[in-house]
Specification:
Helix content: 25-40%
Number of strands: 3
Strand content: under 5%
Strand order of the largest sheet: 1-3-2
Distance between the termini: 89 Å
Largest sheet: 3 strands, antiparallel
Shape: rod-shaped
Length: 243
């Protein structure tokens, strides 16, 4: 990564997604602004489709920010393009042989009077601006999390009121069992006003049992009677024939 290339890329005015591609190129570039990353690698780095990488590279080239050159392997097949960041100019400082001496393992002499230059590197914690989709570009969005509906229930005061209202039809135990059956039924999940739903359930059961008979029971309570096997009929066996 070249500090000069990154500093130059941050200063360029361009759309957010195109700027993210430009910053990715600068991250691969050397001090002369030259790099050759693959498009799939850029797509994985920026978490966008490789077709979008191709489109934004073409846009940066039309804006005059980059210049691309094709590269070929020895067998003539194509490989990743060579990219030039046209605004990055590397100015190597002239060497003063009277001051500069080759690097050695023991020491490296420094010029006390030489002017030092401080380069401020862009903060690594700085985040990219929000991605603004281009015209016709779809931005994937996460699935919204569905809120879990609470379990159907009614207050104790409501149950006491129902016991008083249906005292002539059922006992307190029967009313509580009917309320519990109504709330445990699958139909209760379709309602938001559970007290109105339970009222309707009790009213319909009371209309079916005007003389104080037992309320309807759930299948687990034995609502269906078991079938009793009948004795075989000899006449029917003769008509049916041998098995």
């Amino acid at each position: 990564m070249s500090v000069q290339a990154m500093t130059w890329a941050w200063a360029q005015p361009c759309p957010p997604t195109s700027k993210a591609v430009l910053l990715a190129l600068a991250d691969h570039a050397d001090d002369e602004g030259v790099c050759w990353p693959g498009r799939k690698g850029l797509a994985e780095k920026l978490r966008i489709h490789d077709r979008n990488i191709t489109r934004h590279l073409s846009k940066l080239e039309r804006m005059g920010l980059i210049r691309s050159e094709e590269r070929l392997r020895a067998d003539g097949s194509r490989t990743s393009n060579l990219y030039h960041l046209v605004g990055v100019i590397y100015l190597s400082p002239p060497l003063d042989e009277s001051v500069y001496t080759p690097w050695t393992k023991s020491s490296r002499p420094l010029d006390e009077n030489a002017e030092t230059r401080t380069v401020i590197e862009p903060s690594l914690e700085e985040t990219l601006p929000p991605v603004v989709p281009l015209e016709g570009e779809k931005v994937p969005q996460g699935k919204p999390t569905a809120k879990k509906k609470p379990k159907p229930s009614v207050s104790e005061g409501f149950v006491v009121k129902m016991i008083k209202d249906y005292a002539e039809v059922w006992s307190e135990k029967q009313v509580r069992e009917t309320v519990a059956l109504a709330l445990s039924h699958q139909a209760a999940k379709k309602y938001d006003e559970w007290e109105l739903y339970v009222k309707g359930w009790l009213r319909r059961d009371a209309e079916r049992n005007p003389n104080g008979r037992q309320p309807r029971a759930s299948p687990s309570q034995g609502a269906h009677k078991p079938q009793v096997a009948r004795d075989p009929d000899p006449a029917w066996d003769r008509l049916r024939g041998p098995a």
